[in-house]
Amino acid sequence: MHMIKPEDRTPYVKLIVERYHDTAYPPDGSEASYEDYANYLGLVNGPRTYGVEDEMMTYAQRHKNATIKELIEYFDTLADGREPVEDLDAGENEWLDED
User: Residue 74, SS3?
Assistant: First the structure.
């Protein structure tokens, strides 16, 4: 598994982590719902995979109060019918290094 260190995150990923990290990893130690956790990971990994990070960044900046669900629904409209963009550096999914 390839971990993305904080200093290597794209501006889009930094924005998603800043806004939604606590939804996926509640600070009180409780467990996030499966849907919130899965959508968070989808927002971190999906837009780059489908080549739509710029569009997602624009949408997220214009909709500062959007929920994770609203962002994933918008992402789905962008990714619908697209093939993943080939990333020669990625052999597998990238995960955020949460340290």
Answer: helix
